[in-house]
Amino acid sequence: MARQSGFAYLFLLFFIALMAVSALALGTVAHYARIRSDEAELLRIGGEFRRALAGYRDAANPRVYPTSLDDLLLDRRSGIQRRHLRKVYVDPITRQREWGLVTEAGRIVGVHSLSARKPLKVSGFDPLDGDFELAEHYSEWVFQPASGVIALPRRPAR
To answer: Which of 21, 56, 87, 132 has a CA positioned 20 to 30 A from the CA of residue 67?
Structure first.
């Protein structure tokens, strides 16, 4: 009888080890899912900034970019109040309201994250974000509007 009592203890140790490995794997999956979610949120917010910068630029003559991100919240240049951006978003990677700014002549022409972390996503970007495939850090994901040329939809040939 004494020989059989050791198997239950050995089975219990094996079961605890299996549970620990399962919990570790689940934690890793959850970690990477959160990072991918943060990247998707950064791409969404960056697109909002890109559209807001283009909208501000195209809203009045002369066509200029804003001097601060707060200018995107309430634009009074043309006599009509316009909101190009609902709010200045928090960077989902750094969890801060502060963004890196790309400026030309004191005007903001683009924004980027201040994070030096390496992105997980390296391919499969939208055409406007095609340069992100070469990025080593999130701070290299610069969101800026396309040139001021507006392409009209093509009409079908008759």
So the answer is: 132
Q: Does 156 map to a domain? A: no
Q: Which residues contact 116 (CB under 8 A, 6 or more apart)?
A: 137, 138, 139
**Residue 2 belongs to a domain:** no
Flag whether 25 is in a domain.
yes
Distance CA 45, CA 51 (A): 10
**Domain residue limits at 57:** 7-140
pTM of the model: 0.79
Q: Kindly state the average pLDDT of the residues 55-77.
A: 93
Structure confidence at residue 148 (pLDDT): 53
| Residue 108 belongs to some domain of the structure | yes
